[in-house]
Amino acid sequence: MPAILIGVLAAFFFAFTFVLNRSMELSGGSWIWSASLRYLFMVPLLLIIVIAKNNLKPLLYEMRKRPGTWLLWSFVGFGLFYAPICFASAYSPGWLIAGTWQITLISGSLLAPFFSEVIQTKNGPLKVRGTIPFKGLMMSLLILLGIIVMQIDQSKDISLADLLYGVVPVLIASFAYPLGNRKMMDVCEERLDAYQRVLGMTLASLPLWFILSLYGLFTAGMPSKEQTGQAALVALFSGVIATVLFFRATDMARGNMQQLASVEATQSFEVLFALLGELLFLSIPVPSPISWIGMFIVILGMILHSYAAHAKTKTNVQMIDQKAAQ
After folding, report:
1. Cα distance between residue 101 and residue 167, in whole Å
2. N or C end of the chain: which has fewer CB within 10 A?
């Protein structure tokens, strides 16, 4: 139960991303600054954590070995993830983006064949090529159904162009985030912990954010003090606090597949927290009953997907152990 509560708390802080991005957009701030400022502020925050753990030198050593790889996959995993998310906030409310973002579970499943996974068996760890978890994917279709329901309801009030601007960037981000992060996990091969990897990818993505900031300076001018402050809060709440809490929750549940699935499923609460945040602080209209139905379908789909995915992992381990015993 403590791990699940910590997971819910992590979802609460992750939801600040969607609420504050929408707030910055409604107050006239450019999505360019919303995206770039977050990562610029994350650098000192993550440096404090990594230096405190005496892990900075190993990170810099790894980055010097393969600088091109770090630049490429950091651009994909962070740049093509967060810039589109911020762009979409100009066209959709935060709760709707948070709901649509849950499609990353489907995107991540479709990317499975491009990576290997390590399965712990009785004879030790075994590295096998990933496969698309079709059972979990079928459960994920509920997520897709919920997103479609929400988007159809939203489309009644906006143009087709605005609908696409709010959806397509999130779809791009949903593939870019797991692709970039998994590639970097393969590159690091457990030589770096999660905090080192996130800091390294943040540092490697800085050229993009500097270029984007320069573009924003000439097209939108300097960010306001309000937007700068809100971007700093996103970096703190989502980039640091939520990440630390979620890692803590998954560490507590490690070895217990059912509890780990429950922890991962808590992230579906981002949708509800983002909605509550916008209702309280941005005074948005209360979503229609159809949108509420869509949100709960998304949450149900996430819960079922998590349990199906871990059931598959357990079954694979059992099958491998049986073959090894023969």
Report:
1. 9
2. C
Three-state SS across the chain? CHHHHHHHHHHHHHHHHHHHHHHHHHCCCCHHHHHHHHHHHHHHHHHHHHHHCCCHHHHHHHHHHCHHHHHHHHHHHHHHHHHHHHHHCCCCCHHHHHHHHCCHHHHHHHCHHHCEEEEEECCEEEEEECCCCHHHHHHHHHHHHHHHHHHHHHCCCCCHHHHHHHHHHHHHHHHHHHHHHHHHHHHHCCCCCHHHHHHHHHHHCHHHHHHHHHHHHHHCCCCCHHHHHHHHHHHHHHHHHHHHHHHHHHHHHCCCHHHHHHHHHHHHHHHHHHHHHHHHHCCCCCCCHHHHHHHHHHHHHHHHHHHHHHHHHHHHHHHHHHHHHC
> Could you report the per-residue pLDDT of 101-121, keeping only the tens digit for each?
888 877 877 887 777 665 655
199-228 residue pLDDT tens: 999 999 999 999 999 999 999 999 999 999
- Which CA distances in Å does 49 have to 132, 193, 199? 36, 12, 9
- A 10 A CB-CB count for 1 gives 7
Contacts 24+ apart (CB under 8 A), 116-125: 116/186, 119/313, 119/316, 119/317, 119/320, 120/317, 121/317, 121/320, 121/321, 121/324, 122/321, 122/324, 122/325, 123/321, 123/324
